[in-house]
Design a protein that fits this description.
The protein has 10 helices and 14 strands. It has 280 residues and is an alpha/beta fold. The strands form 4 sheets. Strands 1-2-6-5 form a 4-stranded antiparallel β-sheet. It has a 4-stranded parallel β-sheet with strand order 10-14-7-11, with helices on one face.
Length: 280
């Protein structure tokens, strides 16, 4: 009777731990600053093996934790915004190719951290990169755009700016668009527009493979933080967004700044290399 009571207490405690931990893990986190999705999975083995076969139990718990983490990662991925008006869930529901690729990437994820607890629960942490490797989310997110015809970046509205020494002699290493104080929404495929509504930077202007590896932009907390330096280099062109458009996902810059960006890019090519940072 006493053994049954202890087992009931053990199972109840384990269930409470699992419910609390899973509730946290299911939320997941999308860290746009570091460019990763991070989730936690919690698992347990068969109670009968807990003391009699601890090695088997631990292996079962780890396997259950990995499966839980993969489920949580799948749910978190669905909520990632691809464009201002679409999410990964939209792509998964409309494209079997995207769904299959997402499933394969998730199943191929290796743990970045794990912990076994005295109560018999096992915790596994998974991180999926948004871009940068073959198994990054960007590979699936941009599949629908892979075969779209590419369009060249537009010319400046004022074409005389193209040959101005003050623009082309600076050897800019990247672009930083300061959106601070505007509550920008992070997306995988942002668009930069000028104040007339013309798009001056979007996925249709870029090489597909470069998007997969580099991502279209990084999101930073400050103009001069490490993320900005890593992405935009030590001599970036810095402009201030005048507003945001399309559900606060796409920065809008003045026509003059847009012209300067396009003219400088013709000389230095930073847009073509996706050396773009948005400051949040």
């Amino acid at each position: 009777m006493e053994i049954t009571k202890k087992l009931a207490i053990f199972l109840t405690a384990m269930l409470v731990t699992l419910i609390a931990a899973t509730a946290f893990a299911e939320q997941g986190t999308v860290d746009w600053n570091k460019g990763v999705i991070r989730v936690t999975g919690i698992g347990a083995g068969k109670p009968a093996y807990f003391k009699k076969h601890p090695g088997v139990y631990r292996a079962q718990a780890k396997r259950a934790a990995m499966m839980d983490a993969q489920r949580n990662l799948a749910e978190t991925v669905k909520g990632v915004r691809v464009t201002s008006d679409s999410t990964m869930e939209d792509l998964i529901l409309t494209s079997d190719v995207v769904r299959t690729r997402v499933d394969a990437i998730i199943k191929g994820m290796s743990e970045v951290g794990s912990q076994y607890y005295e109560d018999g629960t096992y915790e596994v942490v998974l991180e999926m990169p948004l871009f940068g490797t073959k198994d990054a989310l960007s590979e699936a997110a941009f599949l629908p755009f892979k075969d779209e015809p590419k369009m060249p970046l537009p010319q400046p509205v004022d074409v005389t700016i193209i040959n101005q020494p003050t623009v082309i002699n600076n050897n800019y290493t990247g672009l930083i668009v300061d959106c601070s104080g505007m509550d920008v929404n992070c997306v995988m495929s942002p668009v930069i527009k000028n104040a007339n509504g013309q798009a001056i930077y979007g996925h249709q202007n870029l090489d597909y493979d470069k998007i997969i590896v580099n991502g279209m932009a990084s999101y930073a907390e400050a103009v001069n933080d490490q993320i900005s330096l890593n992405r935009a280099g030590n001599n970036p062109l810095i402009v201030k967004a005048v507003r945001l458009s399309d559900l606060n996902a796409n920065p809008v810059v003045s026509v003059a700044d847009a012209d300067k960006i396009l003219a400088a890019n013709q000389h230095d090519g930073f847009l073509n290399n996706c050396a773009v940072v948005f400051v949040k």
